[in-house]
């Protein structure tokens, strides 16, 4: 029996070795095809019918969507950008000031005309002109771990937060860095009368991104300060706007007033400050250009579909005839008729 088992084992070992070698060769072939870009690929033939249907689908989707966006944008309220840094006491000088306590502030009132009724909520934005938030030194001057709530020492945040790491008394700034310590600090009141005795509600909760509120800004010093979270999402442009608050009251058409308390200096870098009020909907703020773009693309698709319809009727069917040959991986086919009795039938001989 031992002899018989002795004879069987070499056979099994040989079979296992052969299987392993075959599997290795198959794997090598698959990898070689991948590396040499010889894998099978789907290359559809664009017949006139397929192209016409595709253009018609684009037309049917884009034109109605563009009309909806354009009409909706035309009926949305969006005031003009109202500059206020050059209005009366709101012009506070060039700065910079030694600290927030020494900085002057000024109040001014700006009239705002709303030309149609607005259902709450509307949105109040502030903006700066010629303020480069995208400068590399500015963008990188922050410590994400400190903002998240980690216990960070001066040596740990120094590289990230320079040049604003410590306070004048030597204690660590929290939050540190240029972005957090240059926050826009003007405030606004939205009123129905020029003396601002009757104010509409400006709600600044849930104006920051959810990930910022729940993940990125969770330290005790910044938790709940959504105006800071909005500020620290830096803009890539030199002229930009940011959300200040939501107006929680319905607004009737008429004249309103915004009382601005100006504290943020812009004269030193030839900047400007402005605000405006706007509605938003499922596609964002009023954007007639977006609606026109959809309509134009849909119209072009309609014209092209008509061109292909006319062209396909004036020319023969462009579907592949039976005798059309296909190139397969460098194999050159030769078409030879098999017999004269079978019209439309061809035998294909592949010559390597």
UniProtKB/TrEMBL annotation:
<keyword id="KW-1133">Transmembrane helix</keyword>
<keyword id="KW-0812">Transmembrane</keyword>
<feature type="transmembrane region" description="Helical">
    <location>
        <begin position="289"/>
        <end position="311"/>
    </location>
</feature>
<protein>
    <recommendedName>
        <fullName>ALA-interacting subunit</fullName>
    </recommendedName>
</protein>
<dbReference type="GO" id="GO:0005794">
    <property type="term" value="C:Golgi apparatus"/>
</dbReference>
<feature type="region of interest" description="Disordered">
    <location>
        <begin position="332"/>
        <end position="352"/>
    </location>
</feature>
<dbReference type="GO" id="GO:0005783">
    <property type="term" value="C:endoplasmic reticulum"/>
</dbReference>
<dbReference type="InterPro" id="IPR005045">
    <property type="entry name" value="CDC50/LEM3_fam"/>
</dbReference>
<dbReference type="GO" id="GO:0005886">
    <property type="term" value="C:plasma membrane"/>
</dbReference>
<dbReference type="Pfam" id="PF03381">
    <property type="entry name" value="CDC50"/>
</dbReference>
<feature type="transmembrane region" description="Helical">
    <location>
        <begin position="50"/>
        <end position="71"/>
    </location>
</feature>
<keyword id="KW-0472">Membrane</keyword>
<comment type="similarity">
    <text>Belongs to the CDC50/LEM3 family.</text>
</comment>
């Amino acid at each position: 029996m031992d002899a018989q088992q002795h004879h069987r084992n070499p056979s099994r070992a040989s079979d296992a070795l052969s299987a392993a070698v075959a599997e290795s060769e198959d794997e090598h072939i698959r990898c070689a095809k991948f590396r040499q870009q010889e894998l099978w690929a789907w290359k559809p033939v664009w017949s006139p019918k397929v192209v016409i249907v595709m253009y018609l689908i684009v037309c049917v989707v884009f034109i109605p969507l563009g009309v909806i966006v354009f009409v909706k944008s035309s009926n949305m309220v969006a005031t003009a950008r109202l500059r206020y840094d050059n209005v009366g006491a709101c012009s506070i000088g060039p700065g910079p000031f030694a600290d927030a306590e020494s900085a002057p502030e000024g109040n001014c009132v700006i009239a705002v005309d709303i030309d149609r009724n607005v259902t709450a909520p509307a949105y109040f934005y502030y903006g700066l002109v010629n303020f480069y938030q995208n400068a590399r030194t500015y963008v990188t001057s922050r410590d994400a771990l400190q903002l998240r709530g980690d216990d960070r020492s001066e040596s740990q945040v120094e590289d990230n937060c320079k040049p604003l790491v410590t306070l004048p008394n030597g204690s660590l700034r929290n939050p540190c860095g240029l972005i957090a310590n240059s926050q826009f600090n003007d405030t606004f009141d939205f009123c129905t009368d020029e003396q601002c005795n009757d104010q509409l509600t400006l709600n600044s909760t849930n104006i920051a991104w959810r990930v910022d509120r729940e993940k990125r800004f969770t330290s005790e010093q910044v938790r709940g300060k959504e105006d800071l979270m909005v500020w620290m999402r830096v803009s890539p442009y030199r002229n930009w706007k940011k959300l200040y608050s939501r107006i929680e009251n319905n607004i009737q058409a008429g004249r309103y007033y915004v009382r601005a308390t100006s504290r943020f200096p812009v004269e030193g870098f030839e900047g400007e400050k402005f605000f405006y009020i706007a509605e938003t909907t499922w596609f964002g703020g009023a954007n007639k250009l977006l609606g026109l773009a959809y309509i134009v693309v849909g119209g072009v698709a309609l014209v092209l579909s008509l061109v292909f319809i006319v062209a396909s009727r004036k020319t023969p069917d462009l579907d592949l005839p039976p005798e059309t040959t296909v190139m397969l991986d460098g194999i050159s086919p030769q078409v030879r008729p098999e017999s004269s009795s079978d019209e439309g039938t061809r035998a294909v001989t592949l010559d390597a």
